[in-house]
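note to self — DONT lose this again. spent like an hour looking for the file last time. sequence + predicted structure for the chain T wanted, 91 res
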Amino acid sequence: MRSCTRSRIKTYISSREDIRGEIDLAFKDCYRRTTSCPELHKDIETYIELSIEERRLNGDLVVCEDSLVEAVKSALVQGAKGMYAAPPDSN
């Protein structure tokens, strides 16, 4: 039987980018891999644009100034922080 004097434990932690500082404080010496990508950001932006346009067309969203719509789109994209939840299946 072999005795091991040194043990290595590997832990995988997945989180949003906005709590990276807290993870860095808790785990000083760690390897980090970022999975954010421009394609995902573009998909989120497209989904938000289409959702807002659909709501404007069906009357669920009424906005007097187009500049306000752009501000809302921007806030939603920034607030998503890379997270995307697929809409429920309508079938």
